[in-house]
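Example complex used in Figure S2.
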Amino acid sequence: MKIIMLGAPGAGKGTQAIMIAEKYGIPHVSTGDIFRANIKNGTELGREAKKYMDQGLLVPDELTVKILLDRVAKEDCQKGYVLDGFPRTIPQAEVLDKALTEMEDAIDVAVNVDVPDENIIRRMSGRRACLSCGATYHIEHVPPKTEGICDHCGQPLVLRDDDKPETVKNRLKVYHDQTQPLIDYYAGKGILRTVDGTRSMNDVFAAIVEILEK
Ligand code: AMP
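Predicted assembly (214 residues):
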């Protein structure tokens, strides 16, 4: 099962992607996580990506597409995967489609987690992330067991630079300009399914499972 998660930054698609990956035993592939891991490890790719991420801009397609195609070519992705944060532009979607078509393969479903901008801005200011293992929390909706500390690895949680209010506004603009057109793109292919992302995490997940098991 090859799944794409669509939705504005902060719509909760990352949390849902992790839950899907766990339930179906497929890898969760997040380009944002790959970039953050590179930043943490001080790689050249990380240094380059950070310049864009800190401003809420997209990392250029030339950098992004290659890391994604390398990742999905790995053995653990052969039975499927859930893509979180990729594609984010029509050219990225086209490159992915072309690569899959060459392998006589295709994306099965694109799940759009729909949340209005006002809710997003409110949600993102409460988001906290562990820079060590990539886990994300929300001070109201998904709090860690101990305030400010990651449940998984015990490291301190932070408000990511790209979750700060000025950056969130930029990210939403970028989303509407560059990523939202993917909704029509996948609708045109007949594989778009939309869920109401304003409901609780578990209700959204139940709606997604229903779609995936239809
Ligand atoms: P995310 O964790 O998916 O919200 O991604 C965080 C940041 O990483 C984004 O705001 C972008 O700067 C960058 N990024 C992640 N995925 C992509 C992508 N597919 N294309 C371009 N930039 C991306």
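The first strand starts at residue 2 and ends at 6. The two ends are 13 Å apart (CA to CA).
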